[in-house]
Amino acid sequence: MTNAPGLSRQPLSGPFAWTGAEIAASTSWRHELDANLIEEINAGIEAYAASGRPWQEANSSTFPLTGLEGLTTSMREELETGSGIFQLRGVPVERHTPEQMRAFFLALGDHVGMPVSQSLKGERLMAIEDAGENSGDYGTITDSANEGSFRSSRARAFSTAGLRFHTDRCDVVALLCLSQARHGGHSKIASAVAIHNALLERAPDLLAELFTDYPRSRFGEEESDASTHYMLPVFTLEHGKFATHYSRTYIEAAQMNPDVPRLRDAQNAALDILADMAGELCYEMTLQSGDVQFLNNHVIYHARDTYQDDPANGYHRSLLRLWLAMPDSRPLAPSFEVLFGSTQPGTIRGGIWPEGQGPGIGAPA
Question: The whole model's pTM is what?
C-alpha cells in the first residue's frame, strides 16, 4: 500500500457520513421559513434599502436580522457537527430587487460566518450565471496535446456546462437561487466521508493514493496560465478531523505543464473511482427561487448538471454565491496552508484575495 501520511484504516463515523438515500430521508438540514421570519427578513431588507447604503456595505452590524439568531446558530451546528449541509426555503426573492437581495445575502453570510474574497478583484459576493461567449474570459488556454482549448473551473461555472464534483476554496459555500433555468441545472451533493468509507471497503489501495500529494494548477484563479502549481492531497486527517479539497480540473490543468510531476496510474485510477463513488452516493436536488444552500467544503462535494436558459419566456438561471470562513471551523492539515492561509480552526481563512489583503494568500507569486 502507498505510504500515505494521515491515512485512516478505519471507517469514519458521524452524521456527515451519509448516502443520498439517507440524507433524502433526513429533515435536520432543511428549514422552511415561516411567515414571521419572512416578515422579519422583509422588514430588514426594506430598512436597509431606506438607509441608502450600497449593498456592498451590508453586514451583521449594518443589517441586523432580528429573530434569526437561533436559526443561524442551528446552521453553524448542522454544518460543522451535523450533516455538513443546510438548506433554507422561502426567502422572498420575488418581492425585492436584485440589489436588495445582494444586501440581504451578504448580511446573512456575515451573521453565519464571514464572507471572504472570491477573486483578485476582492469580490465577496458573486452572481453565478451564464456569461455566454464571455465565459472564456474567466480562463481558457490552448491544450496543444489534445488540439483544443481547456477552460478553467471558473470559466465553466459561468457557462451552461455541467460542473463535476468539487469543493470551493473556503470553509462553507452558500448559494441563493434567484431564478432557475428552463431545463437542467440540478444540484448534486455527496458526502466525501461516505466516499472515504466506501473506498476503504472496496479499494483500500486507491484510497491510500488520495492521501498522497497531487499537483494542482492555479490556472483561472490567480494565474492566466497553468505554469504555477502547488501540491496538495485530496484527503487529509488532522487531529482526528477529516478534510478534503478536490477539483479534478485544476489537477488536469497542472498536467499540461511539462515541468509538473506526472500523475502515477494509481493516482489517476483513484480519481476515477472517487468520481464514480460520488455519483453513486450523491443526493440530487433542484434549487428553487428563494432556496439557500450551505455546504461544508471540508466534507461535502457539489456538482451541477448542464442547463438551458430561455430568457424570452422568463427562464434565466441566476444564483448568488458566498464563500464563508466559519467561527467554529475544524483544524486543517499543514498542506492546506498554500490555499487557506491559516490552518487553525476558527480563523479567517480561505478565499482568493487582492494583493496585500486577506489572510496572506491569493496574490500572484
Answer: 0.91
